[in-house]
């Protein structure tokens, strides 16, 4: 029977009291004096007054006295009625109090001694404890009550009340099993009562401490399913004298000694016996229950007390069998009985009986992974999970357990129903036997940290992908998806979880997100660590219903994982021995299976014809990306690799979009095009260390522009510094004059290209580049430049670039300083690998663009009959070169008389004549300064030639603008005739022109 919960405990141990007796009320007597006194007074007045009216007072006295007597009797009757009513009320309250105390006492009695019906029907947890068995319940009936009522009864009601208080009805009737309990009467009912008694003994006696001795009879097969063995300190003997199967029956009498047992003395035996009649029972039984009907029985004690009627406690055979199986499972989970000694030391996966499942269903991932003593240990991630936590120290068999679990899943379920992502931070050897199974989407190891981080980050995208699949199907859970929809459950196994978190602390948030949302999406985590306590976040462990602990070193670790210290008590010599809690709060000792060669071969054969499971992440970007790779990705995205001038729906032209590489986006499970949109992004700056592929990146941008706008659309600023100077100023002049300009200007090594130039030219070149960047956007001219360090450029120049392509940098700090994501830095990457908008990128391989045109320098030729004024840094060497070129050289020096010319020299200085040779005046800057008058005359009529630097240039040419930049060395010079701009010419040796006609390069 089920006990009732009372709001308050009545004081059962305090005695009650009968209400006080009202007592006897005497009837009032006749008031003789009260009658005579008025008569005597009236006669005295008559005697004195003689008036007959005074005799009236003699009559009033008796009348008042009689009235008073009658009124007293009326009041007495009223008091007696009130006393009787009060007594009746107090008795009713006493009865109610007795009933309340009886109810509490009955409840407490059933709590102390639960009915076998409650144990069986409500699966009450066993109350196992070492030591002797307590008294058992044989039925419900009357029992002595602890309620006491003080007082002496005065009538039948009070006597009945005392009897009622002393007796507790519907109370458990107990019997001492060590005194022996026999059940006789109708045999099916007697056996049902004996079953109820055995159930109670098994409920109190701990397996391994209570030994069962059962009849070899079909009626008692159910008891053989109990976890109690035939060895133990305490013994329970069950005798069935009514069994006709011929099974042996022990006729030994029952020991009735109740004294303390010495440590060496044999244990007493509790006896439960069944027979058709009392005469067939073994002698010495202290309690005999005769059962005549399901609700009628009589219990007789050997102590001679009168038989007591009761309602017998009965248990059916089917209920007893079910209860025995459940109790055995509880015992296995609790690790009682033999403490795991009955488990085998080695279990082969192929020898385990796997559960019968529907391999095409997504509702279950049940698989046997070991043995728990009572049968195979079945773990179901879909039903018990959704996630699992596995602990175990080195050598405990943790990796073998994971391998056996995954192999069992692979044998039972096809790749379209379950897939594995394996993360092993011990080098990857643990999962090598199953790497080639089609269920395995990938094995990530600590040998490739970038791959490990990419794989785990891709799981965020996997969450979104599964959410989209469920949303399109209108399903709330993966279990409800139609069979034709491709979406397998993904089991993510992380061996050495603590090592992964130490390397990548940010991945803890990804794991927590999967743990919170993975159940309905079909994502399951199996996190293995030597000591998960303190490593795995609480948000994760709260969702890991399955807990497995193989051998651990600390009791606290065992308690933290499985809520029991058993895992810390496992012997180091039994690898694979562990404790599992499948989410029901009952730890079970088990022996993990081993995936031997046969089991692995069976898994490969079972999935030989299956299609490989969908991989949740892509491979890293290749070290070489071809233009065809861009086209493939573009087609999958529905765009062209080079998109320029494509009309939109409204007919407006879209801006140019150029694909320069492939972007890796693991968080979206995809690769995309690295596209540069100059109108929106601005000019492109490529930053990277030497050898990082900067030149190749510029070539990729140039190739993309050339593919759309033609070969003449790209100008590469390259070559000698004279060519670079001319290109920059030519572009700037065309830009400002409105002339046609190229689409793209490519400048490599922008930070060091002008470093060796003279200061004026270096600053002038940087100003020209900055002007191109600033003014080019309005004309559709874009600049793609490369540099090794952004600090090598001025702030104005840096800020003029709108977007950066960051290739490999020497250090992580250099990358961060350039504006990159430090977490994407890798020490060893191929050329062209870097970052684009915060994502990994590999630049497409492209041929460097051909130069837009050749850069030729005109030759300086001496024309016969002309006069030349030459300012040279080395006038002697210059004079020799000019003399060998056919000129008549007149050296000038500081303080020299230039009028004393060489014999036969024609004409006056600066006046051309009809002579066959050119006249050349040569001197350094100081000589020309000293001969200022000559210099002034020659500036107007002669050709001014400067072979030197700025000092020489200023000596003869008064123009303050910068002349064209000369290349390094002494093979170039400046030349200018009055009224014409300064030009750059090659320095002799030059052959003298034979004819007097002028060419386009002559002065």
Report on the architecture of this protein.
The protein is α/β, with parallel strands linked by helices and 1003 residues long. The protein has 5 domains: 16-108, no CATH class; 116-135 and 176-245 and 267-334, P-loop containing nucleotide triphosphate hydrolases (Rossmann fold); 367-606, P-loop containing nucleotide triphosphate hydrolases (Rossmann fold); 627-645 and 654-843, Rossmann fold; 858-897 and 910-986. Helix content is 33%, strand content 21%. It is built from 25 helices and 39 strands. The strands form 5 sheets. Strands 12, 13, 14, 15, 16, 17, 18, 19, 20, 21 and 22 form an 11-stranded mixed beta sheet that branches. Strand 9 (287-293) and strand 10 (296-301) form a beta hairpin. Helix 9 (449-473) runs parallel beside helix 11. The longest helix is centred in the first third of the chain and has 57 residues, at 56-112. It is elongated, with a radius of gyration of 56 Å. InterPro entries: AAA+_ATPase, FtsK/SpoIIIE/SftA, FtsK_dom, P-loop_NTPase. Keywords: ATP-binding, Membrane, Nucleotide-binding, Transmembrane, Transmembrane helix.
Could you give a quick summary of the protein structure above?
By secondary structure, this protein is α/β, with parallel strands linked by helices. Helices cover 33% and strands 21% of the residues. Residues 374-559 form the FtsK domain.
Domains (count): 5
In the CATH classification, which architecture of the largest domain applies? Answer: 3-Layer(aba) Sandwich
Largest sheet, strands/sense/barrel:
11 strands, mixed
The level 1 CATH classification of the largest domain is Alpha Beta
Task: Look at the helices and sheets and give the structural class.
Answer: alpha/beta
* Approximate shape: elongated
Q: What distance separates the N and C termini?
A: 129 Å
- Please count the beta strands (DSSP E, at least 2 residues each): 39
The total of helices stands at 25
Provide the helix percentage: 25-40%
Q: Whole-number average pLDDT?
A: 81
């Amino acid at each position: 029977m089920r006990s009732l919960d009372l709001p308050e405990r009545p004081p059962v141990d305090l005695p009650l009291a009968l209400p006080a007796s009202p007592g006897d009320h005497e009837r009032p007597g006749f008031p003789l004096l009260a009658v005579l006194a008025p008569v005597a007074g009236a006669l005295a007045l008559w005697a004195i007054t003689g008036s007959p009216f005074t005799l009236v007072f003699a009559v009033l006295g008796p009348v008042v006295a009689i009235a008073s007597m009658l009124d007293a009797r009326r009041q007495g009757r009223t008091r007696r009625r009130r006393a009787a009513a009060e007594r009746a009320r107090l008795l009713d309250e006493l009865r109610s109090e007795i009933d309340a105390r009886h109810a509490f006492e009955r409840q407490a009695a059933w709590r102390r001694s639960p009915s076998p019906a409650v144990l069986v029907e409500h699966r009450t947890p066993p109350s196992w404890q070492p030591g002797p068995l307590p008294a058992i319940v044989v039925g419900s009936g009357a029992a002595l009550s602890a309620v006491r009522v003080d007082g002496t009864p005065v009538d039948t009601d009070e006597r009945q009340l005392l009897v009622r208080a002393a007796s507790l009805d519907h109370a458990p009737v107990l019997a001492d099993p060590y005194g022996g309990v026999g059940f006789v009467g109708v045999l099916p009912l007697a056996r049902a009562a004996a079953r109820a008694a055995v159930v109670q003994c098994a409920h109190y006696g701990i397996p391994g401490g209570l030994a069962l001795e059962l009849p070899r009879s079909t009626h008692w097969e159910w008891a053989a399913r109990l976890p109690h063995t035939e060895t133990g300190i305490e013994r329970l003997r069950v005798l069935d004298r009514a069994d006709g199967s011929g099974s042996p029956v022990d006729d030994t009498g029952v020991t009735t000694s109740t004294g303390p047992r010495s440590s060496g003395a044999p244990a007493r035996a509790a006896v439960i016996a069944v027979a058709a009649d009392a005469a067939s029972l073994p002698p010495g039984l202290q309690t005999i229950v005769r059962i005549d009907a399901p609700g009628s029985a009589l219990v007789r004690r050997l102590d001679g007390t009168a038989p007591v009627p009761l309602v017998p406690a009965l248990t059916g055979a089917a209920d007893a069998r079910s209860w025995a199986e459940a109790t055995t499972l509880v015992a296995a989970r609790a690790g009682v009985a033999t403490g795991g000694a009955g488990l085998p030391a080695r279990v082969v996966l192929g020898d385990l009986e796997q559960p019968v499942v529907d391999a095409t269903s997504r509702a279950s991932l049940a698989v046997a992974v070991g043995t728990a003593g009572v049968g195979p240990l079945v773990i179901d991630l879909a039903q018990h999970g959704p996630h699992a936590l596995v602990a175990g120290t080195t050598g405990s068999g943790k990796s073998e357990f994971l391998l056996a679990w995954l192999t069992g899943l692979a044998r039972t379920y096809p790749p379209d129903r379950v897939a594995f992502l394996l993360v092993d931070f011990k080098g990857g050897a643990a999962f090598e036997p199953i790497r080639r199974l089609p269920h395995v989407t990938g094995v990530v190891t600590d040998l490739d940290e970038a791959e490990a981080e990419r794989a785990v980050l891709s799981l965020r995208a996997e969450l979104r992908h599964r959410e989209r699949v469920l949303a399109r199907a209108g399903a709330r859970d993966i279990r409800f998806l139609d069979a034709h929809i491709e979406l397998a459950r993904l089991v993510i196994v992380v061996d050495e979880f603590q090592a992964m978190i130490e390397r990548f602390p940010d991945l803890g948030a990804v794991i927590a997100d999967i743990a919170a949302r993975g159940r309905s999406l079909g994502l399951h985590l199996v996190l293995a660590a030597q000591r998960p306590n303190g490593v795995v976040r609480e948000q994760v462990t709260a969702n890991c219903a399955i807990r497995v602990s193989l051998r651990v070193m600390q009791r606290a670790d065992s308690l933290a994982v499985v809520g029991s210290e058993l895992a810390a008590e496992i012997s180091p010599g039994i690898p694979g021995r562990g404790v599992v809690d499948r989410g029901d709060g009952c730890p079970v000792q088990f022996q993990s299976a081993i995936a031997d060669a046969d089991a692995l071969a069976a898994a490969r054969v079972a999935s030989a014809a299956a299609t490989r499971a969908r991989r949740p992440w892509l491979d890293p970007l290749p070290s070489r990306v071809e233009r065809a790779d861009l086209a493939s990705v573009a087609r999958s995205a529905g765009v062209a690799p080079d998109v320029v001038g494509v009309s939109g729906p409204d007919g407006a032209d879209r801006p140019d979009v150029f694909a320069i590489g492939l972007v890796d986006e693991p968080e979206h499970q995809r690769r995309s095009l690295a596209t540069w949109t100059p109108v929106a992004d601005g000019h492109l700056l490529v930053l990277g260390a030497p050898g990082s592929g900067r030149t190749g990146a510029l070539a990729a941008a140039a190739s993309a522009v050339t593919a759309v706008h033609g070969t003449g659309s790209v100008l590469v600023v390259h070559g000698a510094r004279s060519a670079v100077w001319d290109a920059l100023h030519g572009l700037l002049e065309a830009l400002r004059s409105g002339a046609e300009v190229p689409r793209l200007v490519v400048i490599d090594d922008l930070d060091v290209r002008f470093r060796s130039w003279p200061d004026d030219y270096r600053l002038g070149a940087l100003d020209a580049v900055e002007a191109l960047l600033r003014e080019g956007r309005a004309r559709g001219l874009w600049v793609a430049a490369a540099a090794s360090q952004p600090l090598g450029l001025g702030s104005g120049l840096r800020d003029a670039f709108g977007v950066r392509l960051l290739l490999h940098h020497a250090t992580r700090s250099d990358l961060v300083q350039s504006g990159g994501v430090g977490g994407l830095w890798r020490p060893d990457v191929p050329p062209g690998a870097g970052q684009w908008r915060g994502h990994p990128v590999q630049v497409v391989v492209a041929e460097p663009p051909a130069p837009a045109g050749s850069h030729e320098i005109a030759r300086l030729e001496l024309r016969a009959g002309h006069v030349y004024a030459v300012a040279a840094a080395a006038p002697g060497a210059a004079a020799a070169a000019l003399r060998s070129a056919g000129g008549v050289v007149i050296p000038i020096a500081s303080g020299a008389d230039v009028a004393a010319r060489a014999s036969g020299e024609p004409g006056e200085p600066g006046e051309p004549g009809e002579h066959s040779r050119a006249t050349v005046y040569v001197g350094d800057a100081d000589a020309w300064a000293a001969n200022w008058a000559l210099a002034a005359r020659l500036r107007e009529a002669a050709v001014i030639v400067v072979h030197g630097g700025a000092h020489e240039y200023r000596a003869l040419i008064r123009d303050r603008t910068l002349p064209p930049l000369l290349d390094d060395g002494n093979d170039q010079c400046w030349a200018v005739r009055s009224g014409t701009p300064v030009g750059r010419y090659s320095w002799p040796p030059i052959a003298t022109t034979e004819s007097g006609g002028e060419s386009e390069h002559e002065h």
